[in-house]
TrEMBL record:
<keyword id="KW-0349">Heme</keyword>
<keyword id="KW-0503">Monooxygenase</keyword>
<comment type="similarity">
    <text>Belongs to the cytochrome P450 family.</text>
</comment>
<protein>
    <submittedName>
        <fullName>Cytochrome P450</fullName>
    </submittedName>
</protein>
<dbReference type="InterPro" id="IPR036396">
    <property type="entry name" value="Cyt_P450_sf"/>
</dbReference>
<keyword id="KW-0560">Oxidoreductase</keyword>
<keyword id="KW-0479">Metal-binding</keyword>
<keyword id="KW-0408">Iron</keyword>
<dbReference type="InterPro" id="IPR001128">
    <property type="entry name" value="Cyt_P450"/>
</dbReference>
<dbReference type="InterPro" id="IPR017972">
    <property type="entry name" value="Cyt_P450_CS"/>
</dbReference>
<dbReference type="InterPro" id="IPR002397">
    <property type="entry name" value="Cyt_P450_B"/>
</dbReference>
<dbReference type="Pfam" id="PF00067">
    <property type="entry name" value="p450"/>
</dbReference>
Length: 409
């Protein structure tokens, strides 16, 4: 787990990722948070929000900021300033910008993330999945993360962007470092490594963009370069940021959707059998996987004025952590069986895993499609699919997912 400031012993209901067993299963702890302290000011200097209704409220509230520049004095402001102090690269994406920048960026990027463009990718995704399943069938067993969940979204993103010949291994290594920035970071050496990765990735992506300007094709990067809104185009800085966002956020969330979803299914044999007998449930099953074990557990908002939530008055400049993983198990919305996996759950799509409101994930349709194709074809291809050993988790608080999942077929 990423190093964090040492915290004093925590009373019940206070967010504590260091308690035994949290990395393997944080959900009992999330239930305590919802029941005891659903809106809490934490010793880390942030506010944790864990009930579905409150999380949905702050995600939809356009008055809240996503830009760290609005943070007030405190540990989070100190961490942000330390992270950017020596960074010559400032990656402004639709995830960390407010209007009017966010409105402009989302309009431009949204022009190429259409249902039609995502649908056109499905044959390519199916081809990648079937090739991986062929290799698993030949071997008889595999680590599902290594064999399918991890390489699939990276290959899809590279193909959809139309990436030229480049050092894909190095690109993957650097984005693996960069993804740590989505976790609470307390180690100065880790922060320096993140900055170095940003600088190298920035240079790598600028070369790719320059090449693509001279060699346009029918691909996403060419479309992003050409995307226009009222005479406006994305700058090179903005293009770099959006491409890296795809690799960092788009890759890891899909890895976790596939890995966490298959783990949940194989740990619930009745649901596995239900999906095998009713393959048309795969679309709703993906929504339930997103709800049951969210690919991303937290997202943040920042208050720009005093803000009331529940019976709490939150000062301006405060960071609010919306606990998506906790909200997705809230029995107040999903009923008394919210802790159970039910692939035919009627309210499954009420999850908040792709956020809500102005920052709803533009890539949600792509992630859903990859999950539907990968998990659906895996289950239908292998009637005897089973776990062949313990699942190993990555220990992250935010992008929590499996790093190893031995399966037999």
């Amino acid at each position: 787990m990423t190093e964090m400031p040492q915290l004093p012993p925590m009373p019940p209901g206070v967010f504590n990722p260091f308690q035994p067993g949290f990395a393997e299963d944080p959900y009992n702890h999330y239930r305590e948070m919802r029941d005891i302290l659903p809106v809490q000011r934490h010793p880390m200097g942030v506010w944790f929000i864990s009930r579905h209704a409150d999380v949905a409220t702050i995600l939809r509230d356009a008055r809240l900021s996503v830009s760290e520049i609005n943070l007030g004095a405190g540990p989070m402001r100190d961490q942000y300033e330390a992270l950017i102090a020596d960074a010559p690269v400032k990656l402004v994406t639709i995830m960390n910008s407010d209007p009017p920048d966010h409105t402009r960026l989302r309009a431009l990027v949204g022009k190429v993330f259409t249902p039609r463009s995502i649908g056109a990718l499905e044959p390519m995704v199916t081809q990648h999945v079937d090739a991986a399943l062929d290799r698993i069938a030949d071997a008889g067993s595999a680590d599902l993360i290594e064999a399918l969940a991890f390489p699939l979204p990276f290959a899809v993103i590279s193909a959809m962007l139309g990436m030229p010949e480049t050092d894909h291994k190095r690109l993957l290594e650097l984005t693996e470092t960069l993804v740590v920035a989505l976790e609470p970071v307390g180690d100065p050496q880790v922060m320096k490594a993140i900055v170095r990765a940003e600088v190298e990735l920035d240079a790598m992506m600028r070369e790719v963009i320059a090449w693509k300007r001279n060699n346009p094709a029918d691909d996403l990067l060419s479309a992003l370069i050409q995307a226009e809104q009222h005479g406006d185009l994305l700058t090179d800085d903005e293009l770099v940021a959006q491409v890296l966002l795809l690799y960092v956020a788009g890759h890891h969330t899909t890895v976790n959707l596939i890995g966490n979803g298959v783990a949940a299914l194989l740990r619930n044999p009745d649901q596995h059998a239900l999906l095998r007998s009713n393959p048309d449930l795969i679309g709703n099953a993906v929504e339930e996987f997103l709800r049951y074990d969210s690919p991303i557990h937290q997202t943040r908002r920042i208050t720009t004025a005093p803000y009331s939530l529940g019976d709490q008055e939150i000062p301006a400049g405060s960071m609010l952590i919306a606990c998506l993983g906790a909200a997705n198990r809230d029995e107040r919305v999903f009923g008394p069986d919210a802790e159970a996996l039910k692939i035919d759950r009627e309210q499954a799509r009420q999850h908040v895993s792709f956020s809500l409101g102005p920052h709803h994930c533009l890539g949600s349709a792509l992630g859903r499609m990859e999950g539907r194709v990968a998990i659906g074809r895996l289950v239908s291809r292998f009637p005897k699919l089973a776990l062949a050993g313990p699942v190993r988790w990555n220990g992250r608080m935010n992008l929590r997912g499996a790093t190893a999942m031995p399966i037999s077929v």
